[in-house]
User: Fold this.
Amino acid sequence: EGVMHACGHDSHTAMLLGVAHLLKQSYLAEPWHGNVRLLFQPAEEAFDGEGISGATAMIHDGALEGIDAVIALHVASDRPSGLLHFQDGYSLAAVDQFEAWIRGDGGHGAYPHNGSDPLFMLGPILNAIYAIPSRQINPLRPSVVSLGRVCGGQVTNVIPNSVHLLGTIRSYQEEVRQKLWQEIERALKLSETLGGGYELEIQQGYPAMYNDARVNGWMRDVAREVAGETAVIDAEFGMGAEDFAYMTQKAPGAMFMLGAATPDGVERHHHTDIFDIDESVLVLGTAVLAETARRFVTQILL
Assistant:
């Protein structure tokens, strides 16, 4: 029907079902005391009408009550198949969106001196916005401000009375996140010195994901035994976002990336119409999650 998910969450569901099967086999062979909760989370990349994502909804419903630790993985179609990537500490970014309007008088293109021009204001504002990460933020603190849409005017001889901007803001540390919000507004205030004005709306998204080093270490050790020493890689995840971050705020937790590039050599990126993964790696992900959970509840990891 022309519809696809294109991110791999169906494979995550398959692996979690595999985890349930392996843990059941383990328990039947040698009963242990403790509980493993399998979180089949909906809507990792979507918000409801109240701005709530799947992870937040599950937390509100009590899915993490009484949890001592939480673990997860994500398939990565752009990483070599069979390699397991780990990163301690901040590993995925907090992501926010902003929408802004630069306001002016507008007018006839033949007589620009008769009013303020928001397209003219746009020049210094763009320079100021793009300079924020390199000039206003500590270079040791990752940050990104990118514009995805700039739109103003419709015809050749009319100066518009507004310019519309849409953009994304990404960071790791909370203080950097708030600084980015402030600096974007400061950049837009330049419109006031040029006879115009502005409006700014910031939609706060997911927080940064923080991987607990101890929990990550549990999964690393299991991964080395399951996949071999050379298959376990310490590597940066990047400035993408993941609402699993909400769960790691409730309990010590970590997520690793499971390399799943297809053997045909085609780059099948997430959220494209040719997305695909090497499904042979699902057994690796299943085994690492199941064995880490088993060792935790049997107190091997404590």
Notes: The two ends are 49 Å apart (CA to CA). The chain has two domains: 9-91+210-297, 94-204. The chain is about 35% helix and 25% strand. Helices lie at 9-29, 54-60, 118-136, 174-188, 190-193, 213-227, 244-248, 282-297.
